[in-house]
Amino acid sequence: MAAAEKIIALLKSYGDNDESRFYSTAMQIAASEAKKGHVKLAQELKILIEDIKKQRNTESLNTAKTRILHVNEAQKELHDLLELHRSNISLKNMVLNEEVSESLYRIIHEQRKYDQLLQHNLQPRKKLLLVGPPGCGKTMTAKALAGELKIPLFLIRLDGLISRYMGESIAKLKLIFDSMYQHRAVYLFDEFDSIGANRNYGNDVGEIKRVLNSFLMNIEKDESTSIIIAATNLPESLDKALFRRFDDIIQYPLPSKEEIMKLLKTQLKGYKGIDDNYLLELADISIGLSYADISNACKDAIKEMIVFGENEISYKKLLKFIQSKKYQF
Q1: Whether residue 89 sits in one domain with residue 32
Q2: Would you tell me which of 4, 281, 298, 301 could form a disulfide with 267, CB atoms 3.0–4.6 Å apart?
Q3: What 8-state DSSP symbol labels residue 314?
């Protein structure tokens, strides 16, 4: 971005009261000056930006203590579109494929070095498409990223997004993207194929096509500090134009035998009755199940042990619960 364009963007963000974009543009200006060799000026700008941030945070806190904020109609509507979650989950709580794990840790490392990357006119990964079978960790990933970065998670209520009235859904989607500038968080569009389906499919509802077009434009323009996650079990149904809008496309496979073993050990830790030989047999039998299926089978076996006052987990009962998950298909 040229110097004049940065100044224009800075003034526009100030006029729109868009703090996130204002700080982002200001940091880009500081980075540009540093690259020109104006190190002292760049450092002064960075210190000034940090001081403004601290001052605004203090003012916001004092304001919140002294008055109740007015909630307008747009904010009420936004409340109906976003479901807030606070997460204490970290990636250490998840059993993940090695490639998936590397991708997620890369995202976290880049997010934690946000300011340093901006100084070099670089952006951290923040727009993610997660694909894979149900129960393989896509939703839990959103919770883990929010937990690792200590920011909220907003689950988008897609049933509230789509309206039968022309143009209303697009207005609602804009509210969500505007919120990304105002509130840094992880925003999860789960079951994304419900709005991201290929526009060439002849039986699609017109309003959904318009929502998809609007989503494409909004995600392309997005310069907020929030993380946008779209998750789907049906990547083949997505419009091809979507894929290049994301920084990373992460594939979630079903767990391997080694990953099943690790998951079983994690879920059964602290309980007696299942030794390594049994675990090997159970892992073989569990191949083809998702992480969620295996985790739920373990929880069922633990609950049955507690309910019937037993001292250890029964291999036969755990096997029964694992097989019951397989029979569901």
Answers
A1: no
A2: 298
A3: -
In a domain, 66, yes or no: no
Q: Which residues pair with 99 in a beta bridge?
A: none
- E-assigned strand segments in the chain: 82-85, 127-131, 153-156, 186-189, 227-232, 248-251
Amino acid at site 291 = Y
Domain boundary at 189, 222, 251, which?
A: 251
Instruction: Write down the pLDDT at residue 203.
Output: 46
Give the C-alpha distances (Å, rounded to integers) separating 113 from 120, 123, 150, 305, 317. Answer: 11, 10, 14, 47, 48
Residues of the chain with pLDDT under 70: 1-6, 8-21, 42, 53-76, 163-166, 198-206, 327-329
Residues 161 and 196 in one domain: yes
What does the pLDDT look like over 201-215, one tens digit per residue? 554 556 778 888 999
Q: Do the Cβ atoms of 161 and 81 come closer than 8 Å?
A: yes
* pLDDT number for residue 226: 96
Residue 134 and residue 77 share a domain: yes
Asked if 166 and 207 count as a contact pair (C-beta separation under 8 A), the reply is: yes
Question: Domain of 247?
Answer: 73-251
Residues β-bridged to residue 110 = none
- On whether both 264 and 245 belong to a single domain, the answer is no
Type of residue at 5: E
Residue with tokens 């309003």: 207
**CATH for 305:** 1.10.8.60
Based on the domain organization, do 131 and 2 belong to the same domain? no
What count of Cα atoms within 13 Å lies in the side-chain half-sphere of residue 307? 7
Instruction: Please tell me the predicted confidence (pLDDT) of residue 71.
Output: 39
Q: What is the pLDDT of residue 65?
A: 39
Sign, Cα dihedral of 116, 121, 126, 130 = negative
Model pTM score: 0.76
